[in-house]
Amino acid sequence: MRIALAGEALIDFTGTGPLAFQGHEGGAVMNSAIACARLGQPTAFITQLSNDLFGEVLMAYIQANGVDTRFVLRSPAPSTLAFVERTPTTNRYAFYMQGTADVLWSPPSLPELPESCRYLQFGSIALLQDPAGGRITELVEASRGQRVIVFDPNMRPSLLKDADDYRKRYVRWLRASDVLKLSDEDAALLSPGMGLADAAASYLKGGPQAVIITRGGEGATLYREGKAPMDVTPPKITVADTIGAGDTFTAGLSVSLLEHGIEQPSQIAALGEQAWAEVLKFAATAAALNCTREGADPPTREELRAMLGA
Questions:
Q1: What residue ranges define each of the domains in the chain, with the CATH number in brackets?
Q2: Partners of 222 in the beta sheet?
Q3: pTM above the 0.70 mark?
């Protein structure tokens, strides 16, 4: 195991017409776990799945994609469900997660990750409710300095009961993180009225050594202390669906950084400009490929290699 991810797994029901929906395996952190595994890195997922029919589907899907399930607990509580309505520029969500299995994840002792695990990624809706949110925070803080911590807030405004309270807790998550990836929509919610560059500068002061802000089809920008911003533009594609694009981008960051030799937080600052350009291109291309098909469906390493021409 080289990469571990802690967070939610759910069923996404995407709208196909008035009150018509098609189910897909989903959840931002699970999507990233699938992406990391398909991109060729030994990956483990930390969560709790229901014993219901949806939970069985999720477990089978995770296993079929080669994700290590040693840290997946099971529960009689129901599975989290999400309903997604597509719009021309974004997606609208309705979540049903009260008392669900992943929300109730609270092991008596935190998972003991092996030394071989060099990355821990977390974020998204699993942080919004306890006990899972609190226990994931404790797991991340316990791993601080031992492995590279990647944080993707992936905020869902419809689930935020108190945005100001979330911003306060965000400071704690930021302090424990080495790499922060967020969307421009996340930044607008976290730092209302601030431009992206100013927001990124404020996040860098909070803990991370690198901040990457994505802007959908326009690409993404890397921000670091004392360095000029670095932009990446994704390849031109025909978009079928944007669900899972950000999750795949974040997974691509972890995979590519690891493959560029970044195994400790202390190594991030020394990564050169050319290497960062390659990391961003890798992540952006993986995310673009995900968008060429319905639902969250990250590419395999072979598909990505063909797209990159290498």
A1: 3-308 (3.40.1190.20)
A2: 212, 230
A3: yes
